[in-house]
Amino acid sequence: MITSTANPQVKEILQLQNKGRARNQAGVFIVEGLRMILEAPPQAIRKLYVTVDFWEKNKAKLEVLDKEPELVSNTVFARMSDTKNPQGVLGVTRQMNYSPEQLIKKENAHLLVMDNLQDPGNVGTIFRTAEAAGVDGIFLSEDCVDIYNPKTVRGTMGAIYRLPFVIGRLEEYIPAMKAQGIQIYGTQLEKADNYDTIDYKKNTAFLLGNEGKGLRAEIAIHAKAFVKIPMAGQGESLNVAIAAAILMYEVRRQRQ
To answer: Distance between CA atoms of 105 and 93, rounded to whole angstroms?
Structure first.
């Protein structure tokens, strides 16, 4: 049993919890909680850490993973965890790997493109909603918040395992989408059409901009048209995750 925070494995977990560079170099990320562990592809879980109490209560559920866990004292596990009230189970999981072509060449694609989103909660919520709305894939700019940030991972509620995504240079991916016949729509308030006046029945991608600054000019220039969500009252705009949900479900409504 691991009983000291000086243990090399504990130090490794702390590095993976706190530093994106460490996660990317190792090609892994951390997931916590029984649901997130069980929803992960079993072959993706590299290491499993549990408290004794958790193992005794949930051994039968975790046996499906065919992975012998490292037992950790409650005190040390609390240090390893990124949550205030940890359940007592933590996994080191292989990062996902998709190619841009997998997403772009999807028949009648429905895609999202995130440009410099910075809030882990927003990105996690968009992933979770996108899976529910039937989105085929998500592109994230290199300067978006790290999808493997523990808070972002929790926010996806497991969608991170199932919804294909690619991180990289949008300036390269968007022209490839257009060449494939995908219609690109930007989101902004000025000189924009109401979102529900456009036909999204065929290949569609939405550009989602930074929470405070919106889309960068070099990304917005690729949009075929801009859409807006009409606002009642005095509010200037919606939270990006809420706006994205409205757009995604409009696509779903039209295609049904």
So the answer is: 28
